[in-house]
Amino acid sequence: MWCLGTSMQPRRVYLRNLQVLSILAVFVAASFAGCLSNTVSFPKCEDKDNCLTIAFEAKEEYRNTEENPQEFADRISELIGMDVEIYPVTGAAGTITALKYGHADIGFLDGGAAWLSWQTSGLEVLAAEQKADGRPFYNAIAWVHKDSDMAKADLDNDNSTDPYALMAGKVSCHTSALGSSGMLLPMGFLITNEYVDVVGDPDEIDSLTDTVRNHFSEESSIPNSGTKYHKYIGSLRCLAEHEEGTAMDYISFAKDPTVPDYCGNDPEDWCFEGGFTSTSDFHGINYTGKENGEGFGRAPSHPVMYNPEYFSAEKVTMLREALANMSKQVSEGGSQSDLDILDAVFSTPGFTIIGTEDHLGTYGTHIENVPGIKAYFEDKYD
Predict the structure, then answer these.
(1) Can you give the pTM of this predicted structure?
(2) Are 249 and 171 a contacting pair, CB within 8 Å?
(3) Residue among 117, 170, 169, 119 at smallest CA distance from 144
(4) Domain annotation covers residue 276
(5) End-to-end Cα, the chain, rounded Å
(6) Residue 93 burial (CB < 10 Å; 0-12/13-18/19+)?
(7) Does residue 194 sit in the same domain as residue 162?
(8) CA 382: distance to chain centroid?
(9) Do residues 108 and 95 make contact, with C-beta atoms less than 8 angstroms apart?
(10) How far is CA 211 from each of CA 218, 230, 301, rounded to the nearest angstrom?
(11) ∠287-189-126 over CA atoms, to 5°?
């Protein structure tokens, strides 16, 4: 009996372990197969004369198939009655090149790349992604304390007091060295309107930092990635965490939703530990209390670009109608599945139909005077 018991026990353990290993093997194989099924493979148009080609910065693999741009291509195909194919590109430079030479019909660019492609390659805006609040832009704002001399000058209806002139010598808090709302638009506006003189070579981007510190303060914050005052949240913190007397001499350059985003219903710990006691203590120059106030102007969202040399006006109209249909809310007769595709592929609630001048004009007017900006973009997107 003992011999039988001792000989059976290892066998039971062996069989049980074998079963566990078999189950694990099946699970791993299934998981691996799932990964392989998401590897990108974009079908090509069978009829090149009835084909829309989309330049897209595609990933090598999509863990979530909903994020695959082919989902968007297939839906557009249904709406316009044409074959639609994805033309994979690497970076904004690849998109610009594909559109410039007619390898693709449309592509997606950020604001800076779009402006450069408009200026240097004649590309045009077909539509633009919407921000979370439905607008295709953010306003670039100078946030200050409501009791500062800048805020008072902004509200006193006295033309002899100028809030922009009063910014000289203050400590400026930027989002980064080249952020649209936190650096390029504010500095472009101030340089264009002759509040700020460029220091150094006007054709070198490095002159921008010297210009900032010369006009504002040596203590101005131009943060690197990952540091305390980086991005919109850091720029606002740079202003908010100072005591009331000191805070009067600080400016946060950021976008218009920055204050409600970080100090609204669920405020960050630092919002009201300094000289600010509520969101009403923050004042946006040419924004707070101003009807249609836009601060320094609009920072554009990512537009859909095309080359009018290769993409006809008829096709532009057709594609705009398709994007408008996909962007309709369910309450307006739209499709939730369409909205889900736009959210998954582009992280946008929809597209706004807009032209080149309306989307990029004001932005370009200001940033073109930032020292070295055109050469910087040309080098970046070359």
Answers:
(1) 0.84
(2) yes
(3) 170
(4) yes
(5) 83
(6) middle
(7) yes
(8) 21
(9) yes
(10) 10, 19, 27
(11) 85
Q: Which domain holds residue 126?
A: 48-134+301-380
Shared domain for 176 and 198, answered yes or no, is yes
Closest CA to 190 of 155, 227, 216: 216
Indicate if 93 and 197 belong to the same structural domain: no
Cβ atoms within 10 Å of 340's Cβ, excluding its own: 12
Neighbours of 122 (CB within 10 A): 13
| 225 Rama sector, left if φ>0, alpha if ψ -120 to 50, beta otherwise | beta
Tally of structural domains, the chain = 2
**Residue whose entry in the numeric block shows the structure tokens 């001499």:** 249
293 and 361 inside one domain: no
Beta strands at 250-255 and 303-306: parallel, antiparallel or unpaired: unpaired
Q: Which residue has the tokens 């059976």?
A: 8
One domain, residues 233 and 270: yes
Residues 86 and 189 in one domain: no
Same domain, residue pair 130 and 148: no
pLDDT tens for the chain, 382 residues: list them. 444 444 444 444 444 554 544 444 444 444 443 333 456 789 999 999 999 999 999 888 887 888 999 999 999 999 999 999 999 999 999 999 999 999 999 999 999 999 999 999 999 999 999 999 999 999 999 999 999 999 999 999 898 999 999 999 999 999 999 999 999 999 999 999 999 999 999 999 999 999 999 999 999 999 999 999 999 999 999 999 999 889 999 999 999 999 999 999 999 999 999 999 999 999 999 999 998 899 999 999 999 999 999 999 999 999 999 999 999 999 999 999 999 999 999 999 999 999 999 999 999 999 999 999 999 998 888 7
